[in-house]
Structure formats: C-alpha cells, structure tokens
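User: My collaborator sent over this chain with a note saying "see what the structure looks like." That's all I know about it. Can you take a look?
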Amino acid sequence: MAKSVQSRGIPTELSLEQFRQFVLPHLTVGRRGPAPKLSLHAVFNYILKLLYLGCQWKELPIAKDAEGRPEIHYTRIYGAFRRWQAGGCFDIIFTVVVLRLHQSSLLDVTIIHGDGTTTAAKKGWPQHRYQRPQEDQGR
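Assistant: Without extra context I'll predict from the sequence alone. Here is the result:
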C-alpha cells in the first residue's frame, strides 16, 4: 500500500506566537491616534478567516463582546486589510515564509498548485473570422 501523505489545511487562525514570529515584523502599524481596542493579531485572524470563507466583508462572522455587540465593525477590518495590501505587507509575509520554508528544506513543490495566472493563453478569436471577405473590401 502506498504511503499516505499527510496534508495540512489552509490556516484560518494563527497563534499569537506564530503571528509575532512571521507576521507582526512585516505589518505597518499606525503611530498616531488612540491605541486600537482589538489587537492586530485578532484583526489578522479575521482577515485569514475571510479569505478562507470567501464571503463578503459584511458577512464575516465577528465575535460578540460582553454586551452582545460585535467586538469590531467589519469596515475596520477592511481598512486594515487595504492598508496592509497597499503597503505590500502580504507580499513580504508570503516571500519571507516561503524563503524560510525553502531554507529549512520544508518546501515541497510537488504539492503546490498554481492559480493559472502564468498560464499562456491565446488572445481573442482568430482574426479571419471578423474580417470582411476580400471581395467586399474597397467598395
């Protein structure tokens, strides 16, 4: 019988230790204004959950506080996502994690599946289908 390969699912939540080690050094953090009520760790985990679920921002399941209100509004999470995306934080995090996996010989490229963005494709329909017949040209 063939040896089964143990696979891990897509992470939808990072522990505080994982967040501090892999993510926090690469996030842009505001320097002015009041301190956020919810930690960056919690906001990042909400973003991971949204990416995994593929739902709309307003449909993101957000935990309730002691008074029964959502602990954060979805627009705050979206704002953090856009700020980190514009700053290139997600690209840096991805690059650093893949580099660490490669340096540790833990990167198994046999199980990586691309999304097709580098797949060569033909552009449009053949031109001859849309050209007028030769005898009609020039009349």
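A starting point for your reply to your collaborator: Residues 16-108 form one domain.
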